[in-house]
Design goal:
Layout (H helix, E strand, L loop, with lengths): L6 H7 L25 H8 L14 H14 L3 E5 L2 H10 L7 E5 L4 H10 L6 E5 L5 H6 L5 E7 L11 H11 L2 E5 L4 H4 L9 E5 L13 E5 L1 H14 L5 H11 L2 H20 L4 E5 L9 H7 L6 E6 L2 H11 L4 E2 L9 E3 L11 H6 L6 E5 L5 H12 L4
Parallel strand pairs: 2-3, 2-4, 4-5, 5-6, 10-11
Antiparallel strand pairs: 1-7, 6-7, 8-9, 9-12, 11-12
Bound molecules: pyridoxal-5'-phosphate (PLP).
The site of pyridoxal-5'-phosphate (PLP) has 15 residues, from helix 4.
Length: about 400
């Protein structure tokens, strides 16, 4: 549960200092570098004796504003803005792991995170083990090896909407002296703050609900000062930095995160309940539906259920394809977290690189449909879903 009482105020008011032009809205700082006042300042800046902007690959007023705001909203000490969510996932791991290290990850992770763990990291001698949400807690603990340096999880997961107990995992990570890294993309800082439960790193794809309007790609790694220092060193020298333009857009987007998320959640719960009562629907998953296997846990650690609903129509893959082809208003696209409702077929798109067995292990059945519920009138969303289920064109 998010207990940040000034969330909305920080989201709206945290901003860069006003310039001599007395602007009300923060300007866009499109500059590659910054001018030194004198030789001594240049030396001191490079020596890290004083803080300040040098070059936009390192920092920029717009990315600084975004990170300061995200830290306030997540309750973290420091952070780094990245060019994409995947850049955030990658550097949050690559900067802190070395050859011989091991990662314990939940099997339910984003498709590209799975590729990093299974294809890219093995080239550098970094191994992983997957644990399943359904596994007993002792089994997670047993999978921790002497060389396990990080636990990486996504909750709610994409697209299975599995929920992991952050309080328990935070305690386990502390007990074992392991870094807990949580991809908080689906919940956003408004619905859930993993650092309050002991996460050392909180990673985001800002492309989704943080932008919220399907315009820009971005990400962030947030966490303790000590860890972010290493992440920053890695980012500064490998260059996955966010453009000031995207940071400017994303900081503005955060001003409306709370009101947008409230409506996303309200519409998503409305759709989930509607689908659950629909005779042609086999199963529906939504964290705040009592039928969700981890409903109590979702209620404990999330403020509301989030903006994504998954379901399966009776008749499997063929009926699912007819559904996608029959939609009139709802977009058929691979993104999520947009003002516009989007339907996706994970098995043939976002998670197509996984084998059938790997997909089934993370709850992606062939006919599963993921709906990112937008901000349209709920009646119009329900009407489009119903007519598409009926298969009318
Ligand atoms: C989309 C997504 C990512 C990747 O983010 P990009 O901004 O597309 O690079 C990572 N994790 C989750 C849970 C996502 O949904």
């Amino acid at each position: 549960m998010n207990e940040h009482s000034n969330f909305e105020t920080d989201a709206v008011r945290a901003q860069q200092e006003r310039t001599l032009y007395r602007e009300h809205s923060v300007p866009l700082y499109l500059t590659s570098s910054f001018v030194f006042e004198d030789a001594e300042q240049a030396r001191a800046l490079f020596a890290d004796e004083v803080s300040g902007n040098i070059y936009t690959r390192f920092s920029n007023p717009n990315t600084n504003e975004l990170i300061n705001k995200l830290c306030l909203l997540e309750g973290t000490e420091d952070g780094i803005a990245t060019a994409s969510g995947m850049a955030a996932m990658y550097i949050s791991m690559a900067s802190l792991l070395k050859s011989g290290d091991h990662v314990l990850a939940s099997r339910s992770v984003f498709g590209s995170t799975h590729q990093i763990l299974t294809v890219i990291f093995p080239k550098f001698g970094i191994s992983h083990t997957y644990a399943d949400i359904a596994d007993a807690r002792e089994s997670w603990e047993q999978k921790i090896q002497p060389n396990t340096r990080m636990i990486f999880v996504e909750t709610p997961s994409n697209p299975a909407l599995d929920i992991i107990d952050l309080e328990w995992l935070g305690a386990l990570a502390r007990k074992k002296g392991i870094i807990l890294n949580v991809d908080n993309c689906f919940a956003t800082p408004y619905l859930q703050n993993p650092s309050k439960w002991g996460a050392h790193l909180v990673t985001h794809s800002a492309t989704k609900f943080i932008d919220g309007q399907g315009r820009v790609i971005g990400g962030a790694v947030l966490g303790t000062k000590e860890l972010i220092k290493e992440v920053r060193f890695f980012a500064r020298h490998t260059g996955p930095s966010m453009s000031p333009f995207n940071a400017w857009i994303l900081s503005k987007s955060l001003e409306t995160l709370a009101v947008r998320m409230d409506r996303h959640c309200e519409n998503a719960l409305g759709l989930a309940k509607h689908l659950e009562a629909h005779p042609d629907v086999l199963l529906v998953k939504y964290p705040f539906l009592p039928s969700h296997p981890q409903h109590a846990l979702a209620k404990k650690q999330m403020k509301r259920g989030g903006g994504v609903v998954t379901f399966e129509i009776k008749g499997g893959i063929d009926k699912g394809r007819t559904f996608l082809n029959s939609l009139k208003m709802i977009s058929h696209s691979a993104n999520l977290g947009d003002t516009r409702t989007i339907a996706t077929h994970p098995a043939s798109t976002t998670h197509s690189k996984l084998s059938d067995a790997e997909r089934l292990a993370v709850g992606i059945t062939p006919g599963l449909i993921r709906i990112s519920v937008g901000l349209e009138d709920i009646e119009d969303i329900l009407q489009d879903v119903d007519q598409a289920i009926a298969g009318s064109r």
